[in-house]
């Protein structure tokens, strides 16, 4: 099994993509910390039920798992979650940052509270657990013990191209894609890789917004089944992926693509300072040479 003996934290693992990831890791031989607050789609409320149900399903299939109710954006709770993984299983190899919720609004209608809540769970939520995990892995590396660790972050097409009505969510997911690049560059020396996925699948967050796209087919391949995304996540969490880092993969159904990201494009160099009335011509020249940007979702 591709992840035999590896220990994985999956955040937001009570439902949707996180649940599918947790089950897939367990089926691949990993021991899983199933983290979930059991909140509603907008982040309110909470219940231990969803995480405990996934743990029960893993154990019923012969796997090993524990439930965890840490708030992924709470520094101390995330430190305790990492320690819980170490206490239960004696090691930690993978962090899959998946937890999140939405408060969809047009930009001019988005409140400060909604903005802060979405940025907190997605962007800070990707920071807290991973930062504590990296403290452990860095200490192991400095002690001369081999580290073969993985960070798998969750971005979104909304973060890569933008999405009308999702300014806070898009900003957070774009930040996660950039964070992944920095983590990959900084952490390689310790034996840690960092990659991100931008998945398209049927979840509570997508069923309402993209109802037609997310409908289950009457027969045949269910392209929007969250379980379609998990094989890539499991492979990224395995020892086999150690040479792959700093990548963002878009994945939907049976399709996997490598996001090209921001690159330096066409250039004009005058060799001296431009005058303001020269800029218009330069900008139009650059735009004429550039590859057209992908459309913002919803336009």
Question: How would you explain this protein's 3D organization?
Answer:
This protein has 299 residues and is an alpha/beta fold. It has one domain (7-258): Rossmann fold, CATH 3.40.50. The chain is 42% helix and 13% strand. Strands 3-2-1-4-5-6-7-8 form an eight-stranded mixed beta sheet, sandwiched between helices. Helix 1 packs across helix 9 (230-236) and helix 3 packs across helix 4. The mean pLDDT is 92.
Mean pLDDT: 92
CATH topology call: Rossmann fold
Q: Approximately what portion of the residues adopt beta-strand conformation? A: 5-15%
Number of helices: 10
Q: Could you say what the CATH architecture is?
A: 3-Layer(aba) Sandwich
Major pleated sheet: 8 strands, mixed
CATH homologous superfamily grouping: NAD(P)-binding Rossmann-like Domain
Gyration radius over CA: 20 Å
Number of domains: 1
Distance between the termini: 44 Å
CA-based shape = globular
Order of helices and strands: EHEHEHEHEHHEHHHEEH
What is the helical fraction, as a range of percent? 40-55%
Strand element count:
8
Short key terms for the protein model shown above:
single chain, about 300 residues, alpha/beta, Rossmann fold, 10 helices
Topology:
Layout: E1 7-10, H1 16-27, E2 31-35, H2 49-60, E3 65-68, H3 75-89, E4 94-96, H4 112-142, E5 149-154, H5 157-161, H6 167-187, E6 192-200, H7 204-207, H8 211-214, H9 230-236, E7 248-252, E8 255-258, H10 276-289
Parallel strand pairs: 1-2, 1-4, 2-3, 4-5, 5-6, 6-7
Antiparallel strand pairs: 7-8
Helix pairs in contact: 1-2, 1-9, 3-4, 4-6
Quick structural overview:
The protein has 299 residues and is α/β, with parallel strands linked by helices. The chain has helices at 16-27, 49-60, 75-89, 112-142, 157-161, 167-187, 204-207, 211-214, 230-236, 276-289, and strands spanning 7-10, 31-35, 65-68, 94-96, 149-154, 192-200, 248-252, 255-258. The protein starts with 6 loop residues before the first strand and ends in a 10-residue tail after the last helix.
